[in-house]
Amino acid sequence: MGESSDLNEDGRQWVWISFAPEFRLILATFVGPRTFESALQLILMTAAVVSGVPCFFSDGFSCYLSALIEVYHTLKTFPRTGKQGRPKDPVKEPHPNLVYGQLIKKKRQGRLQELVYRVCCGAGRLAELGLSISTSLIERLNLTLRHALAPLVRKSQCFCKDRTQMKRRVTFFQAFYNFARPHMSLRLPLSEQETFALGLIHPKWQHRTPGMAAGLTNHVWTFRELLTAKFEPFHNQSNSG
Predict the structure, then answer these.
(1) Is the pLDDT assigned to residue 133 strictly greater than 90?
(2) Residue 114 φ then ψ, to 5°
(3) Which residues pair with 20 in a beta bridge?
(4) Could you tell me which of 3, 20, 120, 159 has the fewest CB atoms within 10 Å of its CB?
(5) Are strands 72-76 and 25-32 parallel, antiparallel or unpaired?
(6) Could you count the other beta carbons within 10 Å of the beta carbon of residue 58?
(7) β-pair partners for 19
(8) CA 114, CA 108: separation in Å to the nearest integer?
(9) C-alpha–C-alpha distance, residues 57 and 60, integer Å
(10) What is the pLDDT of residues 40-95, one digit of tens each?
(11) How many helices (H) and strands (E) does the chain have?
C-alpha cells in the first residue's frame, strides 16, 4: 500500500477512527501506518471505552479481523493425549458475541464497479440484531475530518510531516466534534411550552452534540470549556476468556 513504518517520519500518515453511528460519537482515534499494530491499537482504545462486545464494520483491510480476535476472544484448550511430545497450545477463537462485517468496494480505472458485503464472524448475532453492513457514516465523517484539518486537504501547502503533531490535531478534533459541535441529525424538537418560554426568538429544536446524545454531557461545550477540560486517563480492558 506504500505506507510508512513506525520508524519513518516522512509525512505519510493514516488516520484510524472508531465510530459509534447511533450517537455520531468518535470513540477512539489513532495516527500511524496501515499495519496490524495500528489496527490493534485502535481496537484496544475502543475496548477501553465501550463495555461488552460491540459490532464492527469496516473496509476490506485484512488486519482488522486479527486485531479484533486479539482483543475479543476466548481460549480453546486441547486435552492431553498421553502421547509423547509437547501438548498443543491453546488457540484464540473469536468471542461468541463478536460481529465483524466488511464492505469491499471493487473499482476499475477509478470507477466503482461492485459492492461486496462479507460477514467475517458473528453472522447469527448480526441477523438477530437486524443490522446491515454499512460504512457510509464513517465515510461522511472522513469528509468532515478533511474539511476540518488543513493537512488532510487533497491540495494544500499545510503539510504535517511530524506524526506527533498530527496526533495532537486529530485528538483535538475528536474532542471538538464530540462535545462542542452540534450535529443536525441528533437535534430534538422542542415542546410548544419550551418554544414560547425563550423570548421573542422561538427556536424549534434542541441542538445536541454526540457527547450529549451518548449521555456524556448535558450541554454544548464552549471553546473555553474545551481548552480547559481535563480528561482522566483510561486503561485498556482485557476481554480474553
Answers:
(1) yes
(2) -160, 145
(3) 25
(4) 159
(5) unpaired
(6) 19
(7) 26
(8) 9
(9) 10
(10) 999 999 999 999 999 999 999 989 999 999 999 999 888 887 788 787 888 999 99
(11) 8, 10
Residue 190 CA, chain-centre distance (Å), reads: 31
**Band (6; pLDDT cuts 50, 70, 90):** low
Question: Which residues neighbour 168 within 8 Å (Cβ) at sequence distance 6 or greater?
Answer: none
What is the pLDDT, as a whole number, of residue 77? 87
* Nearest-10 Cα torsion for 44, 48, 52, 57: -50
Composition of the chain by helix, strand, coil, percent to 5: 35, 25, 45
Nearest to 49 by CA among 233, 217, 172: 233
Contacts of 32 (CB under 8 A, 6+ apart): 6, 13, 14, 16, 38, 41, 163
In this structure, what C-alpha cell is assigned to residue 160?
504535517
Q: DSSP for 1-19, please give it.
A: -----TT--SS--EEEEEE
Beta pairing, strands 72-76 & 239-240: parallel
C-beta separation of 3 from 12 below 8 A: yes
Measure the CA–CA gap between 194 and 137, rounded to whole angstroms. Answer: 32
| Helix pair 163-179, 136-148: axis angle to 10 deg | 110
Tell me how long the chain is. Answer: 241
- Placement of cell 422542542 in the chain: 190
CA 120 to chain centre: 18
Burial of 136: CB neighbours in 10 Å, binned 0-12, 13-18, 19+: exposed
Q: Determine the pLDDT at residue 241.
A: 38
Nearest Cα neighbor of 41 from 49, 50, 32, 51 is 32
Question: 493425549: which residue's cell?
Answer: 81
